[in-house]
Amino acid sequence: MATLVLDNGANTAKIGFSHEAVRVISNCQFRSKTSRLKTFTANQLDEIKDPSGLFYILPFQKGYLVNWDVQRKVWDHLFGKEMFKVDFTDTSILITEPYFNFTSIQESMNEILFEEYQFQSALRTNAGSLSAHHYFHTRPSELCCLLVDSGFSFTHIVPYCRSRKMKEGVRRINVGGKLLTNHLKEIISYRQLHVMDETHVINQVKEDVCYVSQNFCKDMEVAQNKAEENTVMVDYVLPDFSSIKKGFCKPREEMMFTGKYKTGEQILRLVNERFAVPEMLFHPSDIGIQEMGIPEAVVHSIQSLPEEMQPHFYQNIVLTGGNTLFPGYRQRLEAELRSLVPAHLPVSVLQPADPICYSWEGGKLLAHNPDYDEMVVTREDYEEHGHCVCEDKFDL
User: Which residues form a coiled coil (predicted)?
Assistant: First the structure.
């Protein structure tokens, strides 16, 4: 039986059969300014000639799957002829869901997977559990790891011991990629140009120019310098979707420090926004979110665990999720943890080569595990016992 691994994130779905490579596809629908009547789904974004003013229709709100109509359309597209050609009569699905998911959402998911799509078996788990499985598979001598999963809606800190989640140590920070993009839109709209409708473009700007500062105060001083002495300042050329399909940073030697460009390029000048936006991950209180930053939450999580295990967690901190791709993220987190953790305890923060697909790769490994058939709920089990068999089987 084939196994379809689906890491169903709030922003992107990481999907692929366990014997194939992964594909990362937008988990949403779009409407564009130019063709408002037509709705585009998932990877059909490439068909939109002018993605400025894109309107996103998301199945997830605040990290939880609430819009089943949109999610069904995305799944129909993914499972259909154009994409994965899923034969439901001979396929098992391994799918992720958020931590502490609501029972009503879990029951709806069971119904849709077994009754509508009629998968032969299913395994529901957290993306973090798959990441932990991946980590312990590659480092079999390790007993513990602490996942820092910073995604679209939230940042979660989750400790695992021998692939078991330690629920008392789970911490959530309500800062994710969506909030960072929205905050950047507000700053740019206030300072330069109204971009509140340009989520797609500004998300690209964020990914291209933002970084995590190693010394916030020092970078703020540099950002106040004039002209060439201001090494933080970049000029970002916005796409016009005819001659410029994708935005890019001007090379430093081409930057006009007078701020005047002769060509028809539309320029965003970005200075302290570059590091002030990702700083929210470390200091959410900067924008009025009264919560701990990631370093404090890591320490808080580990201190809630048995004392003899704590050194093992500090030595095995694993970063996953899209926000970990900001340059300087790993170094800053390690430096801040070093200042918070007792000097005799070693601190080690590991960043995988592909933090976005790390959990999917863990799911792929799990699908090939000899015990996989013991973990799933089959369609016969579900038809006989209903939702309660899923609750018993899936340790969430």
Answer: none
